[in-house]
């Protein structure tokens, strides 16, 4: 039986109409996210997989790139490659949001 997905990370990384982030920073952050998830063995096929999706826009339009951690409902802003490392280490692995990067909470907890 396949493992249950623990989290889904949505990163607005390469907006077609850049309003809130530099697409180059978004792409670098996306590349770092992919690398870290693979390095840690958290990708699809692991016991506690983390899905990741690169999206055009999350309609937050501020402080981009923006990363939404689902189902936690935490939105992070200014997600540089260095911020990706902090979010993965502190939030995904240790279960503690990185408060100085949080720009909102969705309230969509199931």
Automatic annotation (TrEMBL):
InterPro entries on file: Thioredoxin-like_sf
Protein name: (2Fe-2S) ferredoxin domain-containing protein
């Amino acid at each position: 039986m396949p493992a249950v997905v623990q989290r889904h990370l949505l990163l607005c990384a390469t907006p077609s109409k850049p309003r809130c982030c530099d697409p180059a920073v978004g792409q670098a952050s996306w590349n770092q996210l992919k690398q870290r998830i693979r390095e840690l063995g958290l990708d699809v096929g692991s016991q506690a997989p983390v899905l990741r999706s690169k999206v055009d826009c999350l309609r937050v339009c501020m402080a981009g790139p923006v990363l939404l951690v689902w189902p936690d409902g935490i939105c992070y802003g200014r997600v540089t490659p260095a911020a990706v490392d902090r979010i993965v280490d502190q939030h995904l692995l240790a279960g503690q949001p990185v408060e100085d990067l949080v720009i909102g909470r969705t309230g969509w907890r199931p």
